[in-house]
Amino acid sequence: MRIVRLILGIDGASACWNMAVDEALLISATQGRGRETLRLYVFKPHAVTIGYFQRIREVVDLEKAKELGADVVRRFTGGGAVYHDTYGEVTYSYLTKAVGPLSDVYRSYEIICRAIVVAAKKLGVNAEFVPINDVVVKGRKFSGSAQARRGCWLLQHGTFMYATNLETLSQLLLPQEKKLRQRGLSSIRQRVTTISDELKRRVELHEVVEALIKGFGEAMGIKFVEDELSDYELRLAKELVDKYRSYEWNFRR
Amino acid sequence: MISTEVMSGTSDGEARMIIIRASSKREGGKLVDIEVKYDDHCRIVEAIISGDFFAYPPEAVEILESCLKGCDTDSCVGQCFEVLGTESTLLGLDIRDIEELLKNLFERCREELGTT
User: Fold this and answer.
1) Domain count of chain B?
2) Residue A200: its pLDDT value, please?
3) A151 inside 8 A of chain B by CB
4) Which residue range forms the structural domain that includes residue B40?
5) What is the rounded distance in angstroms from the CA atom of residue A73 to the CA atom of residue B60?
6) Residues A143 and A125: beta-carbon distance below 8 Å
């Protein structure tokens, strides 16, 4: 069984820093200075991250974000806008080599998202993967993932909404009418759920972290040793963080 | 779904521009929005392809957008998509849908400008 580095950032950090660290992990690995890693982290303050190809003004209520003090940052990965609730969401990022079955982009989402399904099961919820990148309970999404690839490495990160305030989520994320219509829904709120809502009890952060570690361990056949970012990764992240703070990056589309 | 917005010519005599927006979404796929700015000969000045899709590498979409600048024929658009198809993987959208949509928008542009 492979031993994989585990990095915990559950005390919370800004969206800019979290994105910079994830990109630093991937770049560092591509340069031969990284290794297989699972990172679990929290956004503090609350944040919205948007997909690489999204137009910020079309997917986020920027006035509301300002009013609520939420960060808004563009990711280096594709996919949709995500609300990261400090007190109700854990984000994972998993860095690994894109080899064997993981070399296929489409399939790799399913393989890695299996860890989310197993983690939900550990918490007592039957979840299922829905292509391309969602994990749902009874048709409602509580986890979405996005992936970047460079060289022979991939980094997939994604949400795990265990007690997200879904009212705030639906205030911050602007509805994509066409998507909702196709699904027969009238609001974002109808499309999402949390683990706490499903279990009808407040699920705590430590339970989720434990479940995710077990989920990744089982699904990927790995064991973890807790560690920290290397000096090189930290330096890279410090260089990258300004990009994520910049108007040019966040409003590029 | 297609919407258009015609921008008037500027006071210093610049030619008028037209912006056409369109979106595409297949069942089970991602939402793709296209915004194309044309000059008064329906030549593409700028094309922006946005949405919650995935592209590997992501730069492929920017290369496509750059390639589309200056196109005023279906064949020019087709050549840009050929470049995209060979070097990239896209998830959540059918690239042929986008190509067809862009080609159809030329017709829409000409209708708007009364040049058909």
Assistant:
1) 1
2) 97
3) no
4) 2-113
5) 22
6) no
